């Protein structure tokens, strides 16, 4: 009898734990450690895509609780038709210098593979029906980079930095734009977050959402949408002003000219 009870208790424990391991969910609120990347758990309202926390077309748009090294790192809403993220949401708690050497990864659960609860290093033999592959970006003749939505330079530690190297956090971004004015904006915003975003305990914390607006028919290798626009927005409590503050930036996803900012 004791053995049967132990077996039943193990099954009960597993039934409680398994949902928390899932990456691809119906709602971000399904996983509390994923919901925390949004201020008060409130997701953006995107007409026709995400309204009141509910995905409007669940066959196309997939909420991903990005899980790496036994921890949820950030949240992404992924467009499986365009094979790019709609947005990635994350918290900024301070910077760590450096960029790891990390192979590009994918999300196995987008391909209906449910036995892996972590990101997987991409390889050419893996199915890529619902997401971009690293080969989509290689040897392209359009001068496009793999552009992070959750920037590596915003991540608080080495594991978090590595987690940003998933193709579900990447869009095709004009190279001189990615490495030019967009990069300069990211650095200046990061400096502003460090300086101004302090909670009541004087700890750095900001909520950031970065996204892309897809083009109508501009694609990379006839598979991956090349966005028309990039945007980013943040909000945080400014302990010096004793109030919440917010800021947003956007730009067309085109090659930089004349060092524009």
From TrEMBL:
**Superkingdom in the source lineage:** Eukaryota
Name the InterPro entries for this protein. Answer: DNA/RNA_non-sp_Endonuclease_sf (IPR044929), Endo_G_ENPP1-like_dom (IPR001604), ENDOD1 (IPR039015), ENPP1-3/EXOG-like_nuc-like (IPR020821), His-Me_finger_sf (IPR044925)
Residues of the signal peptide: 1-22
> What does the UniProt keyword field contain?
Signal
Q: Which SMART domains match?
A: Endonuclease_NS, NUC
Report whether Ligase shows up as a keyword of the record: no
- Annotated DNA/RNA non-specific endonuclease/pyrophosphatase/phosphodiesterase domain ranges read 70-257
Domain ENPP1-3/EXOG-like endonuclease/phosphodiesterase positions: 71-256
User: Is Secreted among this UniProt entry's keywords?
Assistant: no
Query: Which Pfam families does this UniProt record tie to the protein?
Result: Endonuclease_NS
Kindly give the PANTHER family that the UniProt entry links to this protein: ENDONUCLEASE DOMAIN-CONTAINING 1 PROTEIN ENDOD1 (PTHR21472), ENDONUCLEASE DOMAIN-CONTAINING 1 PROTEIN-RELATED (PTHR21472:SF15)
Q: What is the protein name given in its UniProt record?
A: Endonuclease domain-containing 1 protein-like isoform X1
């Amino acid at each position: 009898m004791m053995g049967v009870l132990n077996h039943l208790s193990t099954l009960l424990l597993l039934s409680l734990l398994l949902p928390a391991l899932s990456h691809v969910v119906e709602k971000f609120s399904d996983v509390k450690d994923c919901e925390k990347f949004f201020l008060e758990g409130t997701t953006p309202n995107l007409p026709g895509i995400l309204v009141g926390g509910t995905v409007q077309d669940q066959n196309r748009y997939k909420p991903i609780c990005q899980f790496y090294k036994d921890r949820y790192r950030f949240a992404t809403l992924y467009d499986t038709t365009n094979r790019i993220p709609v947005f990635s949401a994350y918290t900024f708690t301070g910077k760590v210098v450096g960029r790891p050497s990390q192979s590009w990864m994918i999300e196995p659960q987008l391909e209906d593979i449910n036995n892996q609860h972590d990101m997987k290093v991409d390889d050419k033999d893996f199915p890529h029906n619902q997401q971009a592959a690293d080969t989509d970006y290689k040897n392209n003749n359009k001068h496009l980079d793999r552009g992070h939505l959750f920037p590596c330079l915003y991540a608080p530690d080495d594991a978090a930095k590595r987690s940003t190297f998933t193709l579900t956090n990447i869009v095709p971004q004009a190279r001189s734009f990615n490495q030019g004015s967009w990069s300069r904006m990211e650095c200046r915003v990061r400096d502003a977050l460090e300086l101004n975003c302090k909670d009541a305990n004087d700890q750095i914390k900001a909520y950031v959402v970065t996204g892309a607006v897809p083009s109508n028919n501009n694609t990379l290798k006839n598979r991956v949408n090349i966005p028309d626009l990039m945007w980013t927005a943040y909000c945080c409590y400014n302990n010096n002003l004793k109030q919440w503050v917010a800021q947003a930036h956007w730009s067309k996803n085109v090659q930089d000219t004349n060092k524009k900012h």
